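Give me the 3D structure for Adenylosuccinate synthetase.
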Amino acid sequence: MTVDLLLGLQWGDEGKGKIVDVLTSNYDIIARFQGGPNAGHTLEFDGIKHVLRTIPSGIFHKTAINIIGNGVVIDPVVFQKEIEGLAKFNLDIKSKLIISRKAHLILPTHRLLDAASEASKGKAKIGSTLKGIGPTYMDKTGRNGLRVGDTELEDFEERYRALADKHEEMIKFYDVNIQYNLAEMEKEFFESIEVLKSLDFIDSEEYLNQAQRAGKSILCEGAQGSLLDVDFGTYPFVTSSNTTAAGACTGLGIAPNKIKEVYGIFKAYVTRVGSGPFPTELFDEDGATMASVGNEFGSVTGRQRRCGWLDLVALKYAVQINGVTQLMMMKGDVLSGFETLKVCTDYNYKGKTISHFPYNIEPENVTPIFKEFKGWHQDLTGMTTYDQLPIELKEYIEFIEKEVEVPIKIVSVGPDRKQTILK
Ligand code: 2SA
Ligand code: MG
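Predicted structure for Adenylosuccinate synthetase (423 residues):
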């Protein structure tokens, strides 16, 4: 049966959590394939707001099975807190959540290494979420990492010790001032490993391929966004995994020819947390309005997100790399009240007009070229059909569809599950 894929097309926080939650009733299995607790997937329903970190966004659905795939990095300490935070919902977590043995573990020292690396970079820091993501993926590709399956081995503690000792030496190498009590962090770590072990570990690639053959439908849930992809994003200001469509194949063991729909999610404007270039960024009133009306604060770190106009050069790039078949536009409601809206259609790149996303989008090379649109003033948050939307918004939507050459199938007009318009 079908395997579909859902991805963020910008710098994360497009609203993936909400859409997975909306779509889950159509799927038997929801699978996360990359990233880890750097993600903050926010779900809102029945007056409840909940942020998920490592657990897939199908966990609130009655029957869906949720899988944490091999491409994900898991911090058992954060994971334990996530499980505890879900207790009040009385979900039967053990029967609904399974974990790949091949997923890598974030050790306490990975978090310290992340902090040390960022501190050593000073102003040039990546602006990481400090969750240990980079160092854990470094150990994975460097072939030194510990995986979920290793917790079942008798000598897990020795393996842990050897790696943590090595990390301590590396922390010294950075020569920065970082205060920590490793013994305490380790106590917490080993307790949380027991919580992790209370769930079922599986060979998830086998599970998913069997399920697919048996006619089950699978939704692969991406984290972060395409412009944070380690290969295609604004390197080095990226995360350490492949956030694009290919990441679903390597992060779950699903072959490319099994994937059918690729849902691409984007905001009607653009946001970014952390450092790195952002051509359409606003430093004025308009940017401040987007941040406050859109409540643009990191759901993990609370950092204020940088805001700017929609960038079609970047959006087309992401659509192309992912093979997006359907678009979903989020947060159109936040743009209500602007007299004029701008959309970046091309870049002025070192004096030439270009319409592709170049190697370097630093401000000294790139100035965005904008097209202006008339704004609208209606409150969209109670609207339920496409016909009700203001004509100016429809023009905005139809322009994007024409430029990007992919239909926009969902227009979200608020954070709640119910505030979702199908087009
Ligand atoms: P990392 O921690 O090594 O992955 O950070 C590297 C860069 O990736 C960015 N990044 C994110 N950007 C947006 N949202 C993310 N998740 C959280 C959220 C972030 C938060 O949903 O709000 O709470 O601040 C996320 N995760 C990583 C990060 O900012 C760095 O630029
Ligand atoms: Mg988020």
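The longest strand covers residues 340-349. Let me know if you want a second pass.
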